[in-house]
Amino acid sequence: MNIFPLFLKEIWDEWNLRGAVLVSLFFQILLIFCASSRKRTGNMIMTFIIWSVYLLADWVAAFAVGLIANGNKDGDKQVQNDDLLAFWAPFLLLHLGGPDTITAFALEDNELWLRHLLGLVIQFIAVAYVFLESISNDLWIPTILMLVAGTIKYAERTRALYLACLGNFKESMLPPPDAGPNYAQLMEEYSSKKEAHVPVKIIIAPEKRASTSASSVPEEPSTGPNHISEMESGYKFFKIFKGLIVDLMFSFQERNDSRKFFFGMLPEKAFRVIEVELNFMYDALYTKMAVVNRKIGYFFRFICTGCIAVALQLFASHHKHKIHKFDIGVTYALLIGAIGLDVIAIVKLIFSDWTIVLLKNSTAKRWIYYAREKLFFYKLWEPSKSFFDRRWSNSISQHGLIRYCLRERFKWFDKLADICGLKDLLDEIQYKKTVTVEEKLKEFIFKELKEKAKSSEQLEEKAKSAEEKARRAEQSRIAKEICSGRGDWILSQNACHSLLWSVEKEYDECLLMWHIATDLCHYKEQEEKEKPDDVQEEELRRLDRQLCICLSEYMLYLLVMRPTMMSAVAGIGQIRFRDTCAEAKKFFRRGQQEPNCFKKFCKQLKKLLRIGQSKSMEDQISEYCEQLLSVDTVVNPIEVKGDRSKSVLFDACMLAKDLRKLNKTKRWKIMSKVWVELLSYAASHCRANTHAQQLSKGGELITFVWLLMAHFGLGEQFRIQEGHARAKLIVTK
Q1: Nearest to 695 by CA among 8, 67, 72, 104
Q2: Which of 158, 96, 92, 157 is nearest to 131 (CA)?
Q3: Among candidates 550, 526, 582, which has minimal Cα distance to 678?
Q4: Which pLDDT value is given to residue 223?
Q5: Can you list the pairs that 625-628 forms with residues at least 24 positions away whose Cβ atoms lie under 8 Å?
Q6: SS3 of 294-330
Q7: Are 99 and 137 in contact (CB under 8 A)?
Q8: Which of 341, 311, 298 is nearest to 145 (CA)?
Q9: Among 122, 243, 527, 615, whose CB has the most other CB atoms within 10 angstroms?
């Protein structure tokens, strides 16, 4: 019994292979043009499309190889000429190698390099089997050429995955083993000289070491965001600090060089250098750049392109009267598509940041840089030029607790979404908003971290009188102590001791309290609408307030919607957030009767259609904030409610009232500094691989802060002993 009609089966038998090879080619075209956009945007639709194509591309190519291997036994049913079957097979090996723009979709894909190596062997055997089955065909020379090209491509991908695997990535950065001086021989000589009554002593002589000074980075006047000097600086620091991803330690010399370099930079340029540095990290972890951007990489790439070009020429001169016209068209599509993709890859490679920084001739650097700016495909999408120019999304996501409580969905809908595993996705769609990272925010973060680094440096200067080992230990302790501040350092510096209770709690509790308190202060101040005495002071206060709101909502987004990234500091953040939301909803609904399902549906429909709404969402939030601040909080909430509920709603009200006792200008200035400290604490305590994972999702501001802190020497990744010394025997008089 046939489930499908006979004519459908005939269509499938006739077109399945042709369709598979063309779809495989189409997926390669999509990937080479679209894959790199995932580092520039966190858009879920774009990410989903790239993920789908990435997975399907391998599946379709492997499926087509299977069809060819199977169809070689009864070739008349699919393609009239068996020679063509053997010729098509290596193209699929080429497609399995993938484009240069993507080797891994996620960081975990690199750990599967061994699976890809096995896949390479199996697929090569399958293609070789197809070729050997038709060894006497007229297209054996172009088939061999394409087999060489396909094997090179697939080997490149496997090698790239191997190098980006975190274990191998770390091993590649480890210095050669150093056994140190020959202790046994040294002591033997020392003892023999002592026995001979020769005056001798052992001294430790410091060795000369290669300078890693960041000040050697060329400083040229910057003419744009992609200037060569910034690329060179970014590449230099990438080579040193890429070890952060795998938790390597760095010397104090490297820290001092990096700190000195960034102390002398403007905030805008510092962020651009870090942007370049993170872009190199992205390329090393998710693309073929680490493989192809070497002399041997260029050599194999030109062999690959040459093989395809010669195969195209040989097929064009081949007698094709026995081959179906459509199959001829498919073959030309595969050949022209392959050579076109390779040419695009070579052009991208030649004009990449990697080529520019690795060239030693400064004239060649400038020529390639300016030629790249003039290339037609860089100008093709002029309205979206800023998108193709940038190296990350340059945006941050926002999430507000009070807004979330006022825009709740139907309970039955939430339960259904939870069962389907879609609740988190729906929350992101409904409650998350995205804003551009303003230059003012970058500047403020840079200045705050620079100030902390200078404070650390000043404290280290005071410890210089101690012995070398003790001094290094003290420097390390000071940097760790300042780095571990999460608001307490700022509050102590500004003599706000009455607020210290709010930052002495667990990190997630502290973050939620400050988030709600920031909203309460913001909406209360908006409601008051006092005429400013000093316009300039009011403008500065408005800027600080905007920075607070932006960082507050960004940090809540990370805590609630990116729990894996914040897992090292989040604690019971998810539970605390839910309990706080439950208490907030209960407070907002007090005095109101719980509506039935029909009334609730009508209410939600009215909200959706904006029927009969006299108050905007902002007005509603402002009204509820006023109600929260009117609650008497003289008694600590935990004494009244106990500790079963982890809600911090009224603790936040207490904090907001304490903050409102401060002068307006001082209040927002301190709050903005506290938020930067909360951000930097989370950045330095997140696991390094979570920062690396975000590079393929548009990037995160917290990753920039993490790297900037490392460049300022704020963290625990600097070792105490440098070890550049050797023991020597010296004969004394």
Answers
A1: 104
A2: 92
A3: 550
A4: 43
A5: 625/402, 625/519, 625/520, 625/523, 625/524, 626/523, 626/524, 626/527, 627/587, 628/520, 628/587, 628/653
A6: CHHHHHHHHHHHHHHHHHHHHHHCCCCCCCCHHHHHH
A7: no
A8: 311
A9: 243
CA-nearest of 431, 409, 405, 398 to 624 is 405
CA distance 51 to 697: 11
Residues found in the chain: 733
pLDDT at 217: 43
Contact of 703 with 282, CB cutoff 8 Å: no
SS3 sequence, 221-244? CCCCCCCHHHHHHHHHHHHHHHHH
Task: Report the alpha-carbon distance of residue 198 to residue 43 in Å, rounded.
Answer: 76
| 321-327 contacts at long range (C-beta below 8 A, 24 or more positions apart) | 322/80, 322/81, 323/80, 323/81, 323/84, 324/79, 324/80, 324/81, 326/18, 327/18, 327/79, 327/80, 327/81, 327/84
Find the distance separating the first CA and the last CA of the chain, reported in whole Å: 106
- C-alpha distances (whole Å) from 464 to each of 451, 452, 467, 472, 475 are 20, 19, 8, 9, 9
Q: Tell me the two tokens of residue 687.
A: 């696991």
Nearest one of 295, 219, 294 to 261, comparing CA atoms: 219
Residue 678 lies inside a defined structural domain of this protein: no
Local structure of residue 718 (DSSP, 8 states): B
Domain count, the chain: 1
Number of neighbours of residue 203 by Cβ within 10 angstroms:
11
Query: Which segments of 1-139 does DSSP mark as H helices, in order?
Result: 6-34, 44-71, 82-97, 113-133
For position 604, what pLDDT does the model report? 56
**Per-chain mean pLDDT for the chain:** 85
- Report the alpha-carbon angle 377-383-386, nearest 5: 75
Residue 442 in any domain: the answer is: no
3-state DSSP helix/strand/coil percent for the chain, to nearest 5?
70, 5, 25
The least confident of 37-46, 254-263, 636-645 is 636-645
**Burial zone of 459 (CB within 10 Å; 0-12 exposed, 13-18 middle, 19+ buried):** middle
Q: Report d(CA 287, CA 285) in Å as an integer.
A: 6
Output DSSP code: residue 103.
S
Residue 384 inside a domain? The answer is no
Strand ranges in 134-261 using DSSP code E only, listed in sequence order: 200-206
Q: What per-residue confidence (pLDDT) applies to 54?
A: 96
Q: Which residues contact 192 (CB under 8 A, 6 or more apart)?
A: none
Residue 91 within a domain: yes
Beta carbons of 212 and 189 less than 8 angstroms apart: no
Give the whole-angstrom CA distance, residue 261 versus residue 215: 6
Query: If DSSP states are collapsed to H, E and C, what string results for 392-436?
Result: CCCEEEECCHHHHHHCCCCHHHHHHHHHCCCHHHHHHHHHCEEEE
Q: Which domain holds residue 64?
A: 12-172+288-350
Residue 414, classified by CB atoms within 10 Å of its CB into exposed (0-12), middle (13-18) or buried (19+), is middle
Q: 383 phi and psi, to 5 degrees?
A: -60, -30
Give this prediction's pTM: 0.89
Residue 459: predicted pLDDT: 74
The HSE-up count of residue 266 (CA atoms within 13 Å, CB side) is 9
Phi/psi of residue 395, each to 5°? Answer: -145, 160
